[in-house]
Structures are given as structure tokens and as C-alpha cells.
Write a structure and sequence with these properties.
Layout lengths: L2 H11 L3 E5 H12 L7 E6 L6 H10 L2 E4 L2 H9 L7 E3 L6 H10 L2 E4 L2 H11 L5 E6 L21 E2 L3 H11 L3 E5 L9 H15 L7 E3 L17 H19 L4 E4 L3 H4 L3 E12 L4 E5 L8 H4 L6 E3 L7 E7 L7 E9 L6 E4 L20 E6 L2 E6 L4 H5 L13
Parallel strand pairs: 1-17, 2-3, 2-10, 3-4, 4-5, 5-6, 6-7, 6-8, 8-9, 9-10, 12-14
Antiparallel strand pairs: 1-11, 11-12, 11-16, 13-16, 14-15, 17-18
Helix pairs in contact: 2-3, 6-7, 8-9
């Protein structure tokens, strides 16, 4: 996907707009699929990263399953054409009725709470298998908000409670067909996975009916030049060797599952915004754009870095700017960035915005969410219309007595 494509998108569909490169998504999926030393793996795409139906269908064609964390995501997966058996449902802190709804649909159930596990056993006994999410107490991830496998995390059942899990499953006859672990995002080497794997392998010996082990995901991608990223081929090779050894000791071959999200879609996405104002203060030159943290919250929420390029004037004189949004708070998208000289009306491309960009967008300040576009070779297609004011107020219910008379 070239700057020519991006400028064509901005001219045809306006800004702000998320743009995704279909070929990059395919490339990332294939690279991950082929990384595990010829060991067959199942990749369940973590749809929380980006859940547009067209992205889901593209990945379905590549052979992906889905990782869903809510019943709504389950229904979106079904709408995209996925079979229930291709969907892993991993909720957290939901009412048990939502789990029952997922059971009726027929998706894989992943449980991360002892109380819920006991209730599951009381209701279903051995009639419905389930996976159990283990918290390995490993600190991993590039930000505390995305580190989910440490001792203070709300996610998973402690690795030290395996005996308790076993007592519950034996008492109710629950058939545990999988064990799951996810330590966090921005993982750069195999060590974290292998440390968790050793714990999961040890726990697996307590469950004789396992069909798979699920190692989550969190492989890091580059956000800026010089970033240390996941050496996915080395990680894959090391994990494959470890897993083969475990299966030999376990006594039969199990399936190896992963749930990549960011790794597959992040680098495919660019977020196009337009320069509204150039504002110089005593210390800073600001580029104010027609977007903000309501559309891309990662810089504010995670202190995330996204490379920014002025694609309207790529050969302009380099100058120092801070790129800020139009929200009524400090919503800096990029601080002290060297950009080709920016003029009012220029189009800026914010890179690496395919994951947790649109999916975390909101209507703060009553702003409308942006459009989404998919570029596939020379094909450029709108895959989500820009919101309108009518969309924003569609679910409001006016109270008759408060309607002012003419």
C-alpha cells in the first residue's frame, strides 16, 4: 500500500479514515503460521484488535479461527461465516448467563475463575468440555495495562491453584479439554513463552483428557525505527521443540493453539488525518488535526508511539512539530516529531494503526467515529461508513414532558 493509495483514499472518502492493507494481513498470518518448524498450529485471530466483518472474512479465507472475549464478538464471528467450532470464547467477569449462551451456540468455552468453573460443573457436568485459563504469574508486556499474567492480574486461575481446579473438575466430572495461558502483549523472545510453557506442561499432567494447549499471543511488532521486535521464526522453532518434547512425555499429540491479534493486523493499518491548524506557542509548534484520542486512544492510554508522516508534502523541509487532536483534553498523537513541513489541509498518515485503533474508538465530545477502507492490491473499497449525527443519537429516547413547546 503506497502513499498514492492513501492520498486516493483521502480524496475519495475524506478523513479521518482507517486504511488497511489486505496483503500485509495475509503476509503476517502466513509468516506466523509457518514459524513453528512444520508443527501444525491453530491460529485463532484475537478479533478485539480489529473486528470489521471484511477483515474477519479475509482471515477466514486464510484458515484462521477466532478468539472472542465477549458474546457480542461471538455473534460477529458467526455473522462473518465462522463455524462455532472455530471460535474460542474467553470471557472475564461476565454473568454466568453469558457463558450459558455461548454453550448453546457451541463455541469453545474458556474459564478463568474457580467459582465459575464450579457453577459450570454444577450445570453441565461432563456433558460440555471446557478449557481452563491459567495465570502463570509471569510479568510480561510493554505496558502495565497489557500485562495480564502477573500475580495481581484479574485474569486466569493461579498456577498455584491447579490442585483446586482438579478437585472441582473431578467432583463434577468436568472434562477439561484444554489449558490456556496469556501473559501479555509486546513479547519479544521465546523465554516468556517457554517459562509459561513449563508451568503449563506441569499442570497438564493433572488433566488426562486434554486436546490442546493454548499459549495466547502478544508478539511484538515495530512501532518506531530501532524497535526490538519478536523474532517470530526463532520463537516458533523454540516453542515447537518444547511442545514436541511435552507431547512425547504426555503420551499423545495435542494441538498447539495461539491467539494473535496485533501481530496480524497492526502493521497493515494507517490512520489518515487532515491538518486543521498550525499553531505556534512560545515553546512548541502544534499541528492540530481533525481527530484525537477519541479515534486513536493508544498514545494517551498506553503511552504508545506511532510513526507519523506528512504524505501530502513528503519532500518538504523537515520541521519539528507536536501533532495534537481536537478533543477538549491534552490528546497528543505525537510529541516532538520531525515531519516534512506541514500546511493547513495536508494529509498525515499515522502508521501501525491496524490494531486497537478503530476497535477502541469512541464518541467522546460527541465526535463521530471514522470510516474504514480496505486496500487489496489496486482495489480500494469502503468497509465502514463514517458515522453521522443520526447514528450518534439513534438510541436516545426523548421524554415527552421535557420536549419544549414551540
Amino acid at each position: 500500500m503506497t502513499n498514492k493509495h492513501l492520498l486516493e483514499v483521502s480524496e475519495k472518502f475524506g478523513t479521518p479514515t482507517y486504511v488497511y492493507d489486505a496483503n500485509k494481513i495475509r503476509l503476517q498470518y502466513k509468516r506466523l503460521e509457518n514459524a513453528f518448524d512444520k508443527l501444525p498450529v491453530k491460529l485463532h485471530y484475537a478479533m478485539k484488535a480489529l473486528s470489521n466483518i471484511n477483515i474477519l472474512r479475509l482471515l477466514k479465507k486464510e484458515g484462521a479461527g477466532l478468539d472472542a472475549v465477549s458474546i457480542e464478538e461471538v455473534y460477529l464471528g458467526l455473522r462473518a461465516g465462522f463455524e462455532p467450532s472455530a471460535i474460542m470464547y474467553t470471557p472475564n467477569c461476565v454473568d454466568f448467563s453469558e457463558i450459558q449462551e455461548a454453550v448453546e451456540i457451541g463455541v469453545h468455552i474458556n474459564i478463568d475463575n474457580l467459582t465459575i468453573l464450579e457453577e459450570f460443573g454444577h450445570v453441565y457436568g461432563n456433558s460440555v468440555p471446557c478449557c481452563v485459563r491459567i495465570n502463570p504469574h509471569i510479568m510480561a508486556g510493554g505496558n502495565s495495562n497489557i500485562s495480564v499474567g502477573h500475580i495481581d492480574s484479574k485474569f486466569g486461575i493461579s498456577i498455584h491453584q491447579v490442585r483446586h481446579i482438579k478437585r472441582i473438575t473431578e467432583n463434577y466430572g468436568i472434562r477439561v479439554n484444554g489449558l490456556h495461558m496469556h501473559t501479555g502483549s509486546d513479547i519479544v523472545d521465546a523465554e516468556v513463552f517457554l517459562r509459561g510453557a513449563d508451568l503449563l506442561y506441569e499442570a497438564a499432567n493433572s488433566f488426562p483428557d486434554l486436546e490442546f494447549l493454548d499459549f495466547g499471543s502478544g508478539f511484538k511488532v515495530a512501532y518506531k525505527e530501532g524497535d526490538y521486535v519478536a523474532e517470530i521464526e526463532k520463537i516458533g522453532f523454540d516453542i515447537a521443540q518444547s511442545f514436541r518434547k511435552f507431547c512425547s512425555e504426555y503420551g499423545r499429540e495435542l494441538e498447539l493453539w495461539f491467539e494473535p491479534g496485533k501481530y496480524i493486523v497492526s502493521e497493515s493499518g494507517q490512520f489518515l488525518v487532515k491538518s486543521n491548524v498550525i499553531k505556534q506557542t512560545t515553546s512548541t509548534v502544534f499541528v492540530g488535526v481533525n481527530s484525537g484520542q477519541n479515534h486513536l486512544i493508544r498514545p494517551m492510554f498506553y503511552n504508545a508511539y506511532h510513526y507519523i508522516e506528512n504524505i501530502s508534502n513528503p519532500d518538504g523541509t523537515p520541521r519539528l512539530y507536536s501533532v495534537v487532536g481536537y478533543i477538549c483534553e491534552s490528546d497528543t498523537l505525537g510529541y516532538d516529531r520531525i515531519l516534512s513541513e506541514v500546511n493547513v489541509g495536508d494529509i498525515l498518515a499515522i502508521k501501525n494503526a491496524g490494531a486497537y485503533g478503530f476497535s477502541m474508538a469512541n464518541n467522546y465530545n460527541s465526535r463521530l467515529r471514522p470510516a474504514e477502507v480496505l486496500v487489496d492490491g489496486e482495489s480500494i473499497q469502503l468497509i465502514r461508513k463514517r458515522e453521522t449525527l443520526e447514528d450518534l443519537i439513534a438510541n436516545e429516547v426523548e421524554i415527552e414532558s421535557l420536549i419544549l413547546a414551540d
